[in-house]
Write a structure and sequence with these properties.
Strand content: under 5%
Order of helices and strands: HHHH
Distance between the termini: 48 Å
Low-confidence stretches: none
Mean pLDDT: 86
Radius of gyration: 18 Å
Helix content: 40-55%
Number of helices: 4
Structural class: mainly alpha
Shape: extended
């Protein structure tokens, strides 16, 4: 993860420690260390966090679930050949299934 203030808090550190999660930070000033997640984080912030208000945690969960569904099932991604992530996974699994030998 990056070194933004939301990821360097004592609360996050304690949460991770209690759950056995090891936090791994990118080098300061080197967002290209993890370009894919940096791109995703930017989209999440621009398209979801900056345009929604949340009344309760349940409200936030419901809105995030709807955004996630749209992101994965309705929105083509240029990096996936202009397929949605769900279409990409299906196509890839179909290709892998077609390349396996058929047992006799």
């Amino acid at each position: 993860m990056d070194n933004g203030t939301e990821f360097t808090s004592k609360a996050l550190d304690e949460w991770a420690w209690r759950r056995g999660v090891k936090l791994d930070y990118t080098r300061p000033g080197k967002p290209t260390d993890n370009g894919l997640i940096e791109s995703f984080n930017g989209r999440l912030r621009d398209e979801f966090l900056n345009v929604n208000e949340f009344i309760t945690m349940q409200d936030a969960r419901e809105k995030l679930k709807a955004w996630q569904h749209d992101y994965n099932h309705h929105r083509p991604h240029g990096s996936l050949g202009h397929l949605t992530p769900s279409e990409f996974v299906k196509k890839r699994s179909d290709q892998q299934a077609g390349s396996r030998p058929i047992p006799v």
